[in-house]
Design goal:
It is a single chain. By secondary structure, this protein is an alpha/beta fold. Helices cover 27% and strands 31% of the residues. Strands 1, 2, 8, 9, 10, 11, 17 and 18 form an eight-stranded mixed beta sheet that branches. The chain is globular and about 60 Å long. The two termini are 31 Å apart.
Length: 404
Amino acid sequence: MTRPPAHTSDVVVLGGGAAGLSLAHRLTETGAATVTVVEPPDGPLRPPERTWCYWDDEEGDLGPVVSASWSRLRVHGADGRHVVVDPAPFTYRMVRSTPFERHVHALLARSPGGHLLRATADSVRDVPGGAEIRCTLPDGESVTLRARRVFDSRPLPALPPSRTRLLQHFRGWFVRTGTERFDPAVADLMDFRVPQPAHGLAFGYVLPLAPDRALVEYTEFSRTPLTTGAYESALDGYCRNVLGLGALTVEQTEQGVIPMTDARFPRRSGAAVFRIGTAGGATRPATGYTFAAVQRQSRAIAAALRDGHGGVPAPHGRRALAMDAVLLRALDTGRVDGPDFFTGLFRRIPAERLLRFLDGATSPREEWGIGLRTPVRPMLRTAAEIPFLPRRSRPPARNGESPR
């Protein structure tokens, strides 16, 4: 770690999660700007290891940190029937936070204009020509950084007002089984063969890492997180009664809570201070997927800085957010059955088109066709009432990072 003097960086990135690391990666890769990354020191503010997943049509420069990938996807309906799809040219990929962090830290160390600072960012304010960041080092000493632009990925203290807010909350086990139980070529995105909650929906999520190893998660879309004991009980029941894994060893766990909301996230908190990642609205409201949007946004920011432009592009288009607002409301009111809705999408829509739709990369004509394959009357009723619903402030959710 090096301690940069003030005034040395074009850019300061606050936070070392998926968004902060991804932007630092792109800036050092392209040489678009000198960059200082401020990450919290070891302690309660430093998050545990996390898993991020995404789909892409090429491995690209993230290849060295992709720990697993799957060429086929499976969804199990609540009725027990399943559908297996080949989303070619897309592949579903997993990135673990620790290898990604090491990779970006190595890039920063090799870059003449790259710096890593382990410190707590106490305040950020606009100053002439940019912004000033006051930080506290692990030894208690204060340091002040200045930059032309600051990109802040730290969690918001509270969510903006919204019409609908669900939570995607989950707990996962990295398991090793006594015998070969998994097909490493197939990822189970949603397995609805679990007991459904009174409100919202629940599903299992299985990412095989080897014939005898996998990440197995229990996930809910609902208003309130569960206790750790309740997650553990649900996972035990899923592994034992649904997957039939037999004897297993839990080698590692992860847990998180992700807001699924139609709130309007401000992309700017000062003239030279920009929000990125979940805090800037990068999480797709209806699915919780974040990592792919973060990659697109990071590339766009790096290209803009390289070309002498400012600003942060929106992580999702207006049409996508409008459709997500309708779906969230329909799920929250119970007008559509969540397991049937998501299973139906994978059964009726070509996988490649569906994944492009979830990435916001489909045309209006394609989106119209997808809409006709959903429960039309409940969705139209919900769309008609959305403009008249007030936006309300809600208690902050416990922050996590989506594995999706």
